[in-house]
Structures are given as C-alpha cells and as structure tokens.
Amino acid sequence: MTQQLKAAPVSDAPPAARPHIGDYWRLTKPTIVVLLLITTIGAMFIAAEGAPPLDLLFWVFIGGSLAAGGANAINSFVDRDIDPLMSRTSQRPLPRNRVPPRHALLFGVGAVAASVLVYGLFVNWLSAGLALLGAIYYAGIYTGYLKRATPHNIVIGGGAGAIPPLVGWAAVHGELDFLAFILFAIIFFWTPPHTWALTLLVQKDYERVGVPMFPVVFGEDETRRQMVLYTIVLVGITLLPVATGDLSLFYGAAALILGGEFLRQTIVLWRSPSKSRANKLYRFSNNYLALLFLAMVLDRVFANGGFLP
C-alpha cells in the first residue's frame, strides 16, 4: 500500500504579500488555456469551412478564455491542500500564499459566470451551456471528485477537455453534428496517453499525496501498455472524417503521419521506459493535437476556396 503523507493544512490566511495581476494570471494556467482555445477556434474554422466572422471569433476567444481560466482557478482552489506537496505545483499562487483561497474561488466562479454571459449574449446560448458544462465537468466533477476517487479519473474526466470543440462548433452553427462529436472523441482518447505521460514523470508526487492516478494503482508497465492501446484507438478515430467524406486525403495523410509518430513514441516508451522518453512523448502530444487541428482547418478551408469569404 502506498504510504501517504498528510496533506498540507487548508488555510484562508491572507497572503504574505499583496497579490498582483500576475498572480491571478497564473491562476488561470495560461498554457492550458491556449491549447483549449486552439481546439475551440480550430473547430470554428472547420465548422465554417473558412474564416468565421471576426466579431464571432473575438467573443468566442473572450468567452473561452474566461471559461477555461476560471475553471483552472477553481481547480487550484480545490487542490490547495495537495499542491504545496507536489513539485510540479508547489510554486503556484495558492501554495506560495500569494492569493487568498477565497479570492481564488471568487475569481474562478466570476470568470466562469462572465464566460456564460459573453457566450449567451454575443454568441448563442448553446455555446454558453456547453462552456458552463465544461467548467463544471473539470472543476467540479473531475477535480472535486474523480481525481481522488478512482484511478480511472483521467479516462472519465477527459470529457471536460473535449468539450471546447463542441463550443466552437455550436458558436458557428447553433447546433452540433457528427463531425463535431468526432472532434470530441479525438480529444477524449488523446487525453489518457497525454496525461499519463506526464504522470509517469511525477508519479512520486501523486503517491505522496494519495491521489490514485493510474500508474500509482496499476503500475508503470500497465500504464504504458494502456497508452499504446488508447493511441491505436485515437489514430483510428482521427481517420473517421476521411471515411465519412468530411475531410480529404490531405488531412488523412497528415493524420496518419502524426498518428504514426505518436504511436511509435508510445511503443518505444512501453518497450524501453525512461523519464526522458516519457517527457518527449508528453511534449509531442501537445504539438500533435495542435497540428492535427491545423491539418483539419487547412483541409476544410482550402477545399472551399481559401480563408477569404
């Protein structure tokens, strides 16, 4: 049984120094926000088969930034007892006592509420509802319950990160269709190998705080094997838009090349495990998703005459 250390005490004591805007900016986890915006806005270009109206892009960018940043701030509030004990998270604003926990919670809830209003008033209420669902799914269902309750937390919770493409699609069409749900499925099956690659790097942190991540419960070898299996399914799903005729062989070739490299790296990690290979795979997985969405955008855009209306 994994030895657990007592989590850091939760305190609402005021910060040692007056927080400034940079502390709240870091609460939003900007790197994660950028990746979520890529999939949201990428889905808009795919749905529009070209460039969506600039005003729509602007409001989706604002609403998406608020929703993702707010959910991340709430995540930091919920995890404020374990973040100080983990090397990867110990320098965040709450562990460093830079922002009072109550302020972080209010900031996060306020940002999510503002995102719903932005989407509802300037885009449409379907996109507003989906953005709210994504924030609740991540900050409430995943962080608040699944993360500490089951080793399948990432698999079940992966739906939260897969919702942004649905938001982007709904922003353009006001409804969802089959290709939108393929985009959802791509991110859903991409999430486990992506996240487990990172978990393999910081597994001892999760053991220390008693969070039952998959490698902690089932071991590293089984985790790497599951990463291979999920990647195989992922590559198959990325080819569905070609089979349905929604995207052309240009995208199909890009998906095969990118997916082949993703699968190659997971197999190499499985057969010859090392921290450096896990880190390389984790970094590639971020680029993989961005490049895959870029290939879809280029396919749809240039198949319909380019970026101009």
Automatic annotation (TrEMBL):
User: Pfam families in the record, alphabetically?
Assistant: UbiA
One biological process term in Gene Ontology: heme O biosynthetic process
Q: Name the EC number(s).
A: 2.5.1.141
Q: How does it sit in the membrane?
A: Multi-pass membrane protein
**Which coarse location class applies to the principal site listed for this UniProt protein?**
membrane
Q: In which pathway does it act?
A: Porphyrin-containing compound metabolism; heme O biosynthesis; heme O from protoheme: step 1/1
Chain segments annotated as transmembrane: 32-50, 56-78, 104-122, 128-146, 153-172, 178-202, 227-243, 249-267, 288-308
| Keywords of this entry | Cell membrane, Heme biosynthesis, Membrane, Transferase, Transmembrane, Transmembrane helix
Q: Which GO terms describe its molecular function?
A: protoheme IX farnesyltransferase activity
Which superkingdom does the taxonomy of this entry point to? Bacteria
- Where located? Cell membrane
Quote the PANTHER family the UniProt record gives: 4-HYDROXYBENZOATE SOLANESYLTRANSFERASE (PTHR43448:SF7), PROTOHEME IX FARNESYLTRANSFERASE, MITOCHONDRIAL (PTHR43448)
Additional remarks: Carbon 2 of the heme B porphyrin ring is defined according to the Fischer nomenclature.
Query: Which protein, by its recorded name, is this?
Result: Protoheme IX farnesyltransferase
- Organism equals Ardenticatena maritima
Q: Which gene encodes it?
A: ctaB
